[in-house]
Amino acid sequence: MSLPELPEKVGNLIGEELEGLNEMIYVRPEDGASFSLNMTAASILELCDGKRSRVEIARLLADALPAGTAPDQAKISDDVDAILANFVDYGLIYADAEAPD
What we know:
Elements: E1 14-18, E2 23-28, E3 33-38, H1 39-47, H2 54-64, H3 73-90
Antiparallel strand pairs: 1-2, 2-3
Helix pairs in contact: 2-3
């Protein structure tokens, strides 16, 4: 499976933060599927706007971490790619060939 260079969240997801649990729940209305994401994964999903590249998403995530706590950029990029692959599998972002024009 190839990951989209410009990941884009599917447009029909409904998200809501679970107060006090540090999680977001997303629901896909057409089939009722629900997905629980930690706040880091939810942040990545929200950055998937079809305009930012995978590399840019990883850089933004690294920049948001407290100074001195971030692993190297290659590790962050690998982790972001793994999360994006899960998002494609679960239908949370469009696969490369599916993105709307």
